[in-house]
Amino acid sequence: MSLPRRSEGGSVSSNKSDEHRDRSFSSKLDTLTSTLSRKKKHQRDQVDELEREKEEALRPLTSGIMETGMDESGDYKRQVSNESLKDPQVQALSQQLKEWINDVLTDDHIVVKNLCEDLSDGQVLSALIEKLASAKIEHKEVAQSIASQKAKLTEVLNQINYHLQVADDGIKWNVDNIHNKYLISVLHLLVALARHYGIPRRLPSFVKIQVLQITKATQQTETITEQITGDEEREHYNFAARQQERDVFDTLFDSAPDKLNAVKGSLMAFANKQLSQINRGCSNIEEDFSNGVNLVVMMSLAEGYYVPMYSFSMEPTAYDHKLHNVTLALNLMQEAGIPRPKCTAESIVSKDLKSTLRVLYAIYSKYKHLVK
Q1: What is the pTM assigned to this prediction?
Q2: Closest by alpha carbon to 293, among 327, 267, 264, 242?
Q3: Shortest CA distance to 330 belongs to which of 317, 318, 343, 321?
Q4: Nearest of 198, 134, 205, 141 to residue 163 by alpha carbon
Q5: What is the mean pLDDT of residues 307-326?
Q6: Among candidates 323, 335, 266, which has minimal Cα distance to 299?
């Protein structure tokens, strides 16, 4: 009995079925792998998104000192290096100056969060110099266009430079750099103001910033070092010592107010004796010397020279003109060898009695022999 043979066709059908199962399994495996890949990519995207959100959340904490513009004046382009932006000394200096500005402007409800950004249009600087110097800046409206912002900033910086009495070669800031938010210029300006008017905290000493300088013509790059602060401990000590020095007028006001009228009378008599030579006089010390005219006249009479009329205002009404006159008188006193009184030009214009008496007494001490 012979056994039946399998047909060749059945064998081919079986092979095709096996191949179909293999392809089906491979397809499912590919689908699974693709699904897992998509899930992993989605997870990575979620992590990246969380990282971006974290950076966005942290950015306001550092933007006040980490964002800075570029100086593009002259033949070079200058940019603060990233290393200097991260320097703890630079950050500490920026933070202390920011806190000082906010303390000074507390009553004006002004809060500076970003030094370079918030000072760029001149509005905050205007409020700051008005508060520090008891000055008045007429152009106070908020400037919107770039041209009006620069015009505002020009006026404010002129006022600041005038009050600081810095020589032209000592000015390390300008309108373009402040408006362009260049950190170097902003720090130089604020350190100068802090030193001149006194900051209650000691600034970091010997702060240096590395600057990348690119020559415009050749695109050649080099790194230069900009010194921002010096021995601030000594600067702070010297300012504090000057503030703590007491003179005869501190004692007079605190301990002997009953003698104040006698001193005022004596100084008034001396001033009238001098001014009578050109038919001028005074009857109110605070009022009659606040515009600086009588002080300039007294110095010219005592020293025997003529002060040209174009160099000061004989009938000043604007604050700036009065301040110019008083500053001129104080400079004339220094040129005559009179020690600088413990006062500011601003305090005289503001009719501060103690400051005015100090100036008159300094002139009296030098020229009392002229009164017969």
Answers
A1: 0.54
A2: 327
A3: 343
A4: 134
A5: 89
A6: 335
